[in-house]
Specification:
Layout: H1 3-18, H2 26-29, H3 33-36, E1 38-41, E2 44-47, H4 55-67, H5 70-78, H6 93-97, E3 105-106, E4 109-110, H7 112-131, E5 144-148, H8 155-164, E6 172-176, H9 181-188, E7 196-201, H10 208-225, E8 233-237, H11 240-246, E9 253-255, H12 272-278, H13 280-299, H14 306-320, E10 325-331, H15 338-350, E11 368-371, H16 382-387, E12 394-401, H17 407-426, H18 430-439, H19 444-454, E13 462-469, H20 472-493, H21 504-517, H22 527-537
Bound molecules: 6-O-phosphono-beta-D-fructofuranose (F6P).
Length: 538
Amino acid sequence: MPQIDAAWAALAKAADAARDRRIAGLFDAEPHRLSRLGVAAAGLDLDLSKQPWSLADLDAALRLARAAGVEAARDALLAGEIVNRSEGRPALHPALRAPPGADFHAAGQPVSADVDATRAAMAAFAADIASGRRKGATSQPFTAILHIGIGGSDLGPRLVWEALKPLDPTIDLRFVANVDPAELAQALVGLDPARTLVVTVSKTFTTQETLTNAEAARAWLRAALGPASDSHLVAVSASPDKARAFGVPSDQVFAFWDWVGGRYSMWSAVGLSCAIALGFDAFERMLAGAAAMDAHFREAPLETNAPVLLALAHLFNRDGLRRPLRAVVPYAQRLRLFAPFLQQLEMESNGKRVSASGGPIAHGSAASVFGDAGTNGQHAFFQLLHQGTDVIPVDIVAVRQAREGDPAAQRKLLANAVAQAEALMVGRPEAEVRAELEGQGLPAARIAELAPQRTFPGDRPTCFILLDRLDPQTLGALIALYEHKTFVEGVIWGINSFDQWGVELGKTLAVRVLAELEGGAAGAHDPSTAALIGKLTS
Ligand code: F6P
């Protein structure tokens, strides 16, 4: 049997055995469990001990990672090799957050000088906007930014702004992603065109939603300020010619490169709106946090490598125990957009059923991710997490020190994070519930009815990630942690994590349907689709 197949078989066997034992029992059996399954990296503290794996199972998972070539794949990624084979490109997002003077190469070509030059241009632009040196068409300083983009051109910057924005920002930064005109209409309420910069972010500069919104925003500016308002347009794109053709002044077009995947691009000029509104220093600290995670990912042995261990914990559940869902619950309101960000990162990267060489994937790939901020999620979907018929592993992110507000409320938040992880793992046995109900003097028939409903099975795993504070560095490190864990999973599954062919078909059909909604000839459709189009055009 090839080494990789043997490693998969060993993982499956380990997971089968794990089904029949209690996680809590492993702490007695394994005196080193906490230290082996706790890892510190780039200011983050991971606890993977509330997981169904034993330390021997972890070793089996590490053997699988080695058999799948994780170390060589990591080195190839960081060396700028063509890891995105279907599109013939590297995926060199670590180059974007390296300190100035680094020496990254994408497919053999040096890129760090371009990265540094763009970063310097961003810094100068951000300073000019913040200081009011660069003014609008009516000589007023800019006090608002409308950031237009979708997917990778939206989710990262939106998460960063929500996580780090001052309580009373000097720049009013608003985001528009959806082609639903309601979002733009809401975003424009109260904005003064004379003081608003419109930053359009699109890697391709062809995305229907983004161009529709950019055209509408340009029309809004021109209606108020005339053609001179094009000086309010800024663009970030890997197709800068298209941005210039759109009317964006050349010195306000910021480039990035085709070796940056859209969902890995927030470290480039895609983060410009945040860099302006947060200050360039904060943006650079976020890059530094991510770079620290890159260094850890590059250097740490697999046994203590945080992205690798997180990937293996997720994979043990996903493949070993066939659990296709995962919840992500940051106990920090400022991280409430973390789950939507991870949905694109993980599901667009690894939601695939064939390998990078075109063969079928023998194992389940990306889990479906959902979540919301704790404690809000506790009052929505936690009932199912505790007592539902499916076991859904949970990632909990908690922040030790509150950035603002009442420390007593922060303690309550942390207590909930810790208690939920404990409750999910230890559960509450039926015997204990019965004893309590008997103590209350309930009749036997009522106890028989109630006790199972009040029983918690437990053994619902969590990965617990603790940040000392939520600041630019830890946020950068947290996002980079998940980027690399997603890559590691992709390597083990044999997936190219950097393409997204699955989004194409719907886009193509939408163009055809739009032509029909706009009065064009009816096309060939299945009866259900034809009936829907009929309803919309009648
Ligand atoms: O959802 C498909 C996708 O191509 C994403 O990968 C990308 O982040 C998003 O669309 C936006 O693309 P662009 O930045 O080219 O507008």
